[in-house]
Design brief:
This protein is an alpha+beta fold and 559 residues long. The protein is built from 19 helices and 9 strands.
Length: 559
């Protein structure tokens, strides 16, 4: 009974001392930071407005250190129990992280420099004996990680979680609130595992964080800064690592991951999003979870409360994993499904595009089939000797696909010869010398794709124009590259070779010469001093499409 009373008293003393110390120290640090103008900078990613001090981590670190020191002085260092060595190592590592962050708050260190220091601290923790050396996997048994793999695993965990907390510290009260929920889970885990030194440390950290949150919740009057987020992140990562050593099972490793779910998920999403965008992984953006909630219309206070609810759910799930019971798999499944639904509700464009690509991947047989038909048609057209045969083959090809209409358009200067070439080719509209229609109905939703035909002098002589419903099937235009490269090239060669020597071209020219043509005369403007010119642009004979007149042009008739 006496031991129980002693344990309750020291835990209560540690928590209350840290809480009161944090309330007082945060007020002092805030006032001092304002005098020294240690304000958080403004940029497009920042949510806050106005000058807010950024060195609140000094108050959290100092309150936790003083409270823990007073508790040990009053109750003796033996209260840390068998985890004393590991906790001491974690505390020293966290202190080093705090000072790295403080230097960054004061002098703005480069990201690479901070990252190198963080790795050095993590290597020191590993060298001091706090590490994961083995895992027990279901159906596999104990897996020894070995020195190298264990080192990599430990460093990635410590540095990753530390920076994850740094990344989510972009909204009033978010990082400190998330830390409180994670500390609650780790307190329960440490208590069940009889790690009373860890329970004391988690309560001390919780008291220091709660006192700071009173100033940090929206509207915040002080921020954690790197000095606070790196300190809390490293402490949580280290305590989680110690708790996983108690039971070498996959569940023991899952508990800190689930408890620290929000920063872990946010960091994983940031890395994956930037990879999908082709953006540097360590670059900054406004795509973090709290940014998305703000973009969806939530106020900073409501966004923080939504994320608190997510942290509470993950904390509860982490506690349910402690007993290693038969429903562990169910808990992890529910956490996974909940995370998936939550991420979907954030409407990340990167994942919407990824989903589209995946759905399109299931239809690759259609894409392959279309590409093969285009290549076969290109080979068939290359072997034909008349334009009539070529146009018939093109009609069969487009009919077998989803195209609704196709035309071959040529410039009048190419069709009738250089004698009727326009003075300004900007108004030299193409003539539709061949048209294929699936239906007579003109659909406003159809997409128009124009593929240019180029002569040997790199001059444009016409184009192949295709219409297709691009809003329907996602794979509708997937073979356009093959059409543009293979089929267009073959048709281009055939038109340049055959048009002036083929019966089809002769019939078109004879019909066009007997028709009436429009002469478009662009009027001069004051802006560009455009010179008056006469231009022969289109024919109204058989097989030709009526030209569009330039805006502002006058029209006259000529034979």
């Amino acid at each position: 009974m006496r031991d129980h009373t002693l344990s309750l008293g020291l835990h209560l003393f540690g928590f209350v001392t840290a809480l009161l110390g944090s309330l007082a120290l945060t007020w002092l640090v805030r006032g001092r930071a304002r005098k020294l103008q240690l304000f958080d900078g403004h940029d497009d990613r920042k949510v806050h407005r106005g000058d807010i001090p950024r060195v609140g981590g000094v108050a959290v670190f100092s309150a936790a250190t003083v409270a823990l020191g007073l508790t040990l002085a009053l109750f003796g260092s033996s209260v840390l129990g068998e985890t004393a060595h590991g906790l001491t190592v974690i505390l020293l590592g966290a202190a080093a992280m705090h000072f790295v962050g403080l230097v960054d708050d004061l002098y703005s260190l480069r990201a690479r420099v901070k990252f190198v220091f963080q790795i050095i601290v993590a290597l020191g923790v590993f060298a001091a004996g706090v590490r994961v050396s083995s895992l027990t996997l279901p159906g596999v048994g104990v897996v020894e990680l070995g020195g190298t793999v264990g080192l990599v695993f430990t460093v990635i965990w410590l540095v990753g979680v530390t920076n994850a907390f740094n990344l989510i510290d972009g909204l009033d009260g978010l990082a400190s609130g998330a830390a409180l929920f994670a500390l609650t889970t780790m307190f329960v885990v440490a208590g069940i595992n009889h790690q009373y030194g860890a329970t004391l440390l988690t309560l001390v950290l919780a008291g220091a964080t709660l006192g700071f949150l009173a100033y940090n919740f929206h509207p915040a009057s002080i921020f954690l800064g790197d000095s606070g987020s790196l300190f809390l992140g490293f402490m949580l990562a280290g305590i989680g690592l110690l708790s996983s050593q108690k039971g070498q099972t996959v569940v023991a490793v899952s508990i800190p991951i689930v408890a620290l779910g929000l920063p872990v998920i946010d960091t994983a999403l940031a890395i994956f999003r930037r990879f999908l965008r082709g953006q540097p992984i360590f670059s900054a953006d406004r795509g973090h979870i709290h940014h998305r909630l703000l973009l969806l219309g939530h106020s900073p206070r409501k966004a923080a409360l939504v994320l608190y609810a997510a942290c509470a759910s993950l904390a509860l799930a982490g506690m349910l994993l402690v007993n290693d019971s038969g429903y562990v798999a169910l808990v992890l499944l529910v956490v996974g499904l909940g995370t998936t639904l939550f991420v979907q509700s954030l409407r990340y464009h990167e994942f919407a595009e990824l989903g589209r690509v995946v759905r399109k991947g299931f239809k690759q047989r259609q894409v392959i089939g279309r590409g093969v038909r285009v290549r076969e048609a290109s080979l068939r057209v290359s072997e034909l000797g008349t334009l009539d045969e070529i146009f018939e083959a093109l009609g069969s090809t487009f009919a077998a696909d989803d195209f609704q209409r196709a035309e071959l358009r040529l410039r009048p200067s190419f069709v009738y010869g250089q004698g009727v070439a326009s003075l300004d080719r900007r108004f030299d509209d193409d003539l539709a010398v061949w048209t294929w229609l699936r239906t007579e109905v003109a659909e406003a939703s159809l997409w128009e794709i124009k593929l240019p035909l180029i002569d040997e002098r790199e001059g444009r002589v016409g184009s192949i124009v295709l219409w297709q419903d691009g809003l329907g099937d996602e794979t509708a235009l997937s073979h356009m590259h093959t059409i543009a490269r293979e089929l267009r090239g073959v048709v281009q060669v055939k038109v340049l070779t055959l048009w002036h020597n083929d019966a089809y071209g002769a019939r078109f020219r004879d019909d066009g010469e007997a028709s009436t043509f429009e002469v478009v005369v662009p009027l001069p403007t004051a802006d560009d001093g455009f010179r008056r010119r006469d231009e022969l642009v289109a024919g109204e004979g058989k097989g030709a499409s009526r030209t569009r007149r330039p805006e502002g042009g006058a029209r006259s008739k000529a034979r």
